[in-house]
Each structure stands twice: as structure tokens, then as C-alpha cells.
Amino acid sequence: MDLATLTELLSATLRIATPLMFAALGGLLSERAGTFAVGIEGMMLAGAFGGALAALATGSTAMGLLVSLLAGTALALVVAIATTRFRADQMVTGLAVNILSLGLTSFLLRGLFGGRTPVIRLPTLPAWPVPLLSEIPLLGPVLFRQPLLVYAGFLMVIPVAVFLGKTRTGLMLRAVGENPEAAFAVGTNPQTVRILAILAGGAFAGLGGAVLSLQEVGTFTDGMTNGRGFIALAAIIVGRWNPFGAMAGCLLFGAVAALESRIQGWGLPVSSYVVQMVPYLVALALLAGIGRSARMPGAIGVPFVRH
């Protein structure tokens, strides 16, 4: 493998991992507060659709990002109300939200643009080279010649890690995820904390969807998240609910996906369907190995009931 090919492969790894990063950080906040983030796939899809629609209508990528964030948050609000107010099963609620998002975005796409396969065309976000640093051999093109959302996705790991590990509010969120009764006893309202964590998770997931529609492909198609939300969940588990661990998991899946697309381009005598399964097979293998010994938050999936 020559230097140009290696550079291209590593750059693609970061770009592919970016939407996973946003979704994983959002899911991490939700799950550390005690709510399964199964609906993250649907929130990503809503964000991708909302961002594409807003960018097309206004001609503004910034407006597209804002609407992506709001679309993911709106769907997260459904999860928050169902799981905290009505104590609905978190798994079932998450799956219902995913199905709702898939159907609703397809319906709205055809209702707004007509035809059996409507097509939206958007300009994608260009690379934003960092002066001087982008000229460093190998590392420059890989780390410092990327679109802005790639930088944002990976830099967000730091404030999320600091928030969860060093701030009073973050410690309170973690306490709710481990033992909501104890957190309530010291004056914290677990339901409020969980609602805010779910909404923050939806906002992050919406931005993850925006990376797909506004940065990667410049369009919206039915089910375009294609299971990325579930891959992000796998990254959370493999990373043991730690932001930097989740980032490592996203990068691993990104590297596998980048390699998968190159294998198809090399024309090897392997079915494309088999090659496309590789990232998901890796996810299953990691979950069966590393994920099996991971300890999830103590009260995740358990609704809080005030006695």
C-alpha cells in the first residue's frame, strides 16, 4: 500500500466515523442517565431529513444543522415523555421511534417532492484545511484537511468527558444512571435529569444525521442511516460507556467501513453483499467479546418511581 492510498484510507476512516461519533456521544449521555438509547437510529434519520430539507429551503447549511439538531431533539422528546412520564419499556419505545422516523421521513419526502423516488441535491460541506498543520506529511491531510463537522465531532469528546467526569452536573447524571433512589434522596430529580439527558442525546444524534446528508452525500434517501445508530450503540458498549472508549470504537468501525469500500473498488472476487456485511460482523464479534464483560450503568432500563 503506497502513501497516497494509506492517506486516503485514514482520511475516509475519520469521515465515516464522524456521524457515529455524534450518535455515540448522544447515546452515551442518555445511557449514563439510565435510559437505553435504542431510538438513536431514528433520531439520526430525522436529523438527516430535517437538515436536508432546511438547507434546501433556505440555502443555508447553518440553518440545516440547526434544524437537524431540533429534529433529533423533537424525536427524543417522544422517548423522554414515554419512558419517564408513562414509564414505557425503553427498548420498545426506542424501536417504535425508529420505525416512526423511517415511515415519517419517507412519507414527508414523497409528500413534499412527489414521485416514487424523489431526489434532493445539496452542496456538500468542503474540506477546511488548518493552516500550516495541513501541510504535515501524512498526518496533515488525514487530521487537518477535513470538513468542519469532522473536527467538531472528535473535539466534542473532550467536553463530554470533562462534563461526565469532572463536573457536579455530570456526576449527578451518572448517579441517576446508577442509583436514582439515592440521587433523589440527596435532592436530585431523576426524571428531570433523564429527560434532559435524552434530549441532549437526540440533539447529538440529529447532528450525526446532518453529517450524512449535508457533508457526506449531499442528499436524503429513504433509510439513509442504514444501521449507523446501532453501530454507534455497539461503539458505546465496546467503549464501556466512556467517551474516549466510544471514540475508539467509532474509529474502528470507520476503519472497517473505509476498508470495505476500498475492497469493492479493488475488484476482488468477493461478493459485494458479503463485503458490505463486514462492519456489522465486526460489531457482532466485538460485542460478543469485549462487550460481554462490559458493565452497563446499574439502573439503565429501570424506570424511576417516587415512593
Automatic annotation (TrEMBL):
Pfam families: BPD_transp_2
Subcellular location(s) per record: Cell membrane
Keywords carried by this UniProt record: Cell membrane, Membrane, Transmembrane, Transmembrane helix
Segments crossing the lipid bilayer: 12-29, 36-56, 62-83, 95-113, 148-165, 230-258, 270-290
Topology term for the membrane: Multi-pass membrane protein
Record keyword Membrane present: yes
Gene Ontology molecular function: transmembrane transporter activity
Main location (coarse class): membrane
Protein name stated in the entry: ABC transporter permease protein 2
Organism of provenance: Azorhizobium caulinodans (strain ATCC 43989 / DSM 5975 / JCM 20966 / LMG 6465 / NBRC 14845 / NCIMB 13405 / ORS 571)
